[in-house]
Amino acid sequence: MVPSKPNCDPARRYTQKEAAELLGVERHTIKRYEQSGCIRFQVRKAGRAKFTTGQQIIKCWEATYL
C-alpha cells in the first residue's frame, strides 16, 4: 500500500488493474479487499468488466492505511 493518498479523480471509473496500480498492491490483493468489503466493485452491462470509482479507492486507502 502506498503511504501517500492516491491521486485519482473521485468520479472516474477504474478497473481492478488500475485500482491496484493506484494503491500500490497486486491485483490479487484488490480481489481480497473486495471480498472483505473494503472496496466495492460494480459490473458493466457491456462486456461484464468490473469497475470501481475513485471515491471507493480513496475510502479503501483510508480504511487500510490510516
Provide a compact summary of the structure.
This protein is of the alpha+beta class.
Characteristic terms for this protein:
66 residues; alpha+beta; three-stranded antiparallel β-sheet; 3 helices; 3 strands; 12% strand
How would you portray this structure in words?
The chain has helices at residues 16-23, 27-36, 54-65, and strands at 13-14, 42-43, 50-53. The protein is an alpha+beta fold. Strands 1-3-2 form a 3-stranded antiparallel β-sheet. Helix 1 packs across helix 2. The protein is globular. The N and C termini lie close together (11 Å).
The profile of the biggest β sheet is:
3 strands, antiparallel
**Order of helix and strand elements from N to C terminus:** EHHEEH
Outline type: globular
Helix content: 40-55%
Strand order within the widest sheet? 1-3-2
Radius of gyration: 11 Å
Q: Which regions are unreliable across 5 or more consecutive residues at pLDDT < 50? A: none
> Could you tell me the strand content as a percent range?
5-15%
Q: Which class best fits the helix and strand makeup?
A: alpha+beta
| Helix count, DSSP H or I runs of 4 or more residues | 3
| Separation of the first and last Cα atoms | 11 Å
| Annotation, overall tally of beta strands | 3
Overall pLDDT: 94
